[in-house]
């Protein structure tokens, strides 16, 4: 079967010769430092060979540039924008951060649109273009308006978040489909996305503090129009088949059929149980990062870190995230979901105690400078977060039904993001109840202690996670319980979009 596919791809055998050349190059560079450097090169070449180059470019732009680099600029810029320009309290900033994440909670809507509603004959490209324009307009507004009202500022930040979310779910639609058709490459796709995101975040956070110092948070928002513009470029460059004469009158029925299919799948024990665990594991990890950020920059109670230092600290955290992605890819990707999630959640809870040591200033008693200590804290925290996140992503891709991969994967990610929102608002409530303000941090140690205790509770919910490993199938590819009309639509969709299927058939996703 594989030989037939190769012959169909290239009757002259050029595809086979290319693979043989790659194998020869791999053998030549298999030793020493050269071999180590060639491993990722061959890996990217394999993905580019299996996928169309424009798709790989899209993954790098969306995950690496838009979410990674742009996310670093957005995070640091927004923190200083809320603190220095809008002058809000840390508990308020925590709540507003949750509001800006709402577009990620309604990801099923974006996924459903990309699955059943093509625009001008294309199923993915218009959504990239639309997402990029939203990002450019919202960031330009924040950058150019010096005295923007708080409500309008939050709306603009939310719109920018929506642009990133739409681009993310559009890429995820192809990625999830590829994880089903090529299950052996599912972990590689997750690693590609994680690697792109981690490297982008490293660069983004590294330069964010410098640019906040030089041009201010509003200037940083102006720089963020560049990643949004690259998303528009992805929309124009993506190799996607044109679909003329689409029956738009059937869109309503397709929405109904897809919703029925999602509900039927979601009711299965192998689906709703891990979904419940994913939500609770995030919701119970209370987010009090805004309180810690205000303490980091306070000249009296805290270490009074500068903008450059804050950006560098977050960039070190991205290094930890990158190490977590590498560790997962080369050492942990074949472990059973339940076992891996147990140890990562335990490490996540324990590592949070390091914040308590710093806030109580115990590190200074041992002669460890704040600057050095917080870098260790951030890198360990991001590494454990990445190790906890990646098996959940693989598990999510495994339980997506064929035909509505984008919609259902978006639904699963929205459940995770709902947990993140609950975590953010829960942390904001905790900061408010403990009366932690812009200048008062007496109870910050108690907030950290309570957060770390709550982080342990997901360990008692691991029975909701299947015992399967990433190489096994969790959800049957064809399910009799699915509505027959949905299955028919799925079959027709795959036959009419064979180029798109081949486009996403050979990549690993986030």
Characteristics:
about 500 residues, mainly alpha, Growth Hormone, Chain: A, 23 helices, about 75% helix, disordered N terminus, disordered C terminus
Number of domains: 1
Strand content: under 5%
CATH fold category name = Growth Hormone, Chain: A
Number of strands: 0
CATH architecture: Up-down Bundle
- The total count of helices amounts to 23
> What's the overall geometry?
globular
Radius of gyration: 23 Å
CATH superfamily: MFS general substrate transporter like domains
Overall CATH class: Mainly Alpha
Q: Mean pLDDT, nearest integer? A: 78
Largest sheet: none
Task: Describe it.
The chain is mainly α and 510 residues long. The protein has one domain (49-504): MFS general substrate transporter like domains (Growth Hormone, Chain: A), CATH 1.20.1250.20. It has 23 helices and no strands. It has helices at 2-9, 14-28, 32-50, 53-85, 90-100, 102-105, 107-116, 125-144, 150-181, 186-223, 225-237, 251-266, 269-283, 289-296, 307-332, 337-351, 353-359, 362-365, 370-398, 405-433, 444-455, 484-496, 498-504. α17 (353-359) packs antiparallel against α21 (444-455). The chain starts with a helix and ends in a 6-residue tail after the last helix. 50% of the residues are buried. Mean pLDDT is 78; it is low at 1-31 and 477-510. This is Folate-biopterin transporter 2. Pfam families: BT1.
């Amino acid at each position: 079967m594989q030989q037939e596919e190769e012959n169909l791809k290239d009757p002259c055998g050029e595809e086979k010769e290319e693979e043989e050349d790659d194998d020869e190059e791999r053998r030549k560079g298999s030793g020493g430092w050269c071999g180590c450097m060639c491993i990722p090169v061959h890996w990217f070449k394999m993905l580019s060979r299996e996928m169309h180059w424009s798709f790989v470019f899209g993954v790098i732009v969306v995950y690496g540039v838009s979410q990674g680099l742009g996310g670093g600029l957005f995070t640091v810029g927004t923190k200083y924008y809320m603190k220095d320009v809008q002058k809000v309290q840390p508990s308020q900033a925590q709540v507003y951060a949750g509001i800006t994440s709402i577009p990620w909670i309604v990801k099923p809507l974006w996924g459903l649109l990309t699955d059943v509603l093509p625009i001008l004959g294309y199923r993915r490209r218009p959504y990239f273009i639309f997402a990029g324009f939203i990002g450019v307009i919202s960031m330009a507004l924040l950058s150019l308006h010096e005295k923007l009202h708080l409500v309008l500022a939050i709306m603009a930040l939310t719109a920018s978040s929506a642009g990133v979310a739409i681009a993310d779910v559009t890429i995820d639609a192809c990625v999830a489909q590829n994880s089903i058709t090529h299950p052996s490459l599912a972990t590689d796709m997750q690693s590609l996305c994680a690697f792109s995101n981690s490297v982008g975040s490293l660069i983004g956070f590294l330069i964010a503090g410098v640019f906040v110092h030089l041009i201010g948070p509003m200037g940083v928002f102006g720089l963020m129009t560049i990643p949004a513009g690259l998303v528009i470029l992805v929309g124009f460059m993506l190799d996607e088949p044109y679909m003329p004469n689409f029956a738009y009158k059937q869109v309503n029925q397709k929405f109904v059929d897809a919703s029925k299919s999602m509900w039927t799948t979601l009711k299965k024990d192998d689906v709703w149980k891990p979904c419940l665990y994913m939500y609770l594991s995030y919701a119970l990890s209370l987010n009090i990062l805004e309180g810690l950020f205000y303490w980091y920059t306070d000249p009296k109670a805290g270490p009074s870190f500068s903008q450059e230092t804050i950006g560098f600290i977050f960039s070190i955290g991205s290094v930890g995230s990158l190490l977590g992605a590498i560790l997962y890819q080369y050492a942990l990707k074949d472990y059973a979901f339940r076992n891996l999630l147990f140890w990562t959640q335990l490490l996540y809870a324990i590592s949070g105690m390091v914040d308590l040591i710093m806030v109580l200033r115990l590190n200074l008693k041992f002669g460890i400078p704040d600057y050095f200590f917080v870098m260790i804290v951030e890198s360990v925290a991001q590494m454990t977060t990445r190790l906890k996140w990646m098996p959940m992503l693989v598990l999510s891709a495994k339980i997506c039904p064929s035909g509505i991969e984008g919609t259902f994967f978006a639904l699963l990610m929205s459940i995770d993001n709902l947990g993140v929102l609950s975590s953010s608002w829960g942390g904001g409530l905790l900061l408010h109840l403990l009366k932690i303000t812009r200048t008062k941090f007496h109870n910050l140690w108690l907030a950290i202690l309570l957060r770390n205790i709550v982080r342990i509770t997901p360990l008692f919910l691991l029975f909701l996670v299947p015992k399967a490993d990433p190489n096994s199938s969790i959800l049957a590819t064809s399910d009799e319980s699915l509505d027959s009309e949905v299955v028919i639509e799925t079959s027709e969709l795959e036959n009419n979009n064979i180029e798109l299927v081949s486009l996403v058939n050979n990549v690993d996703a986030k």
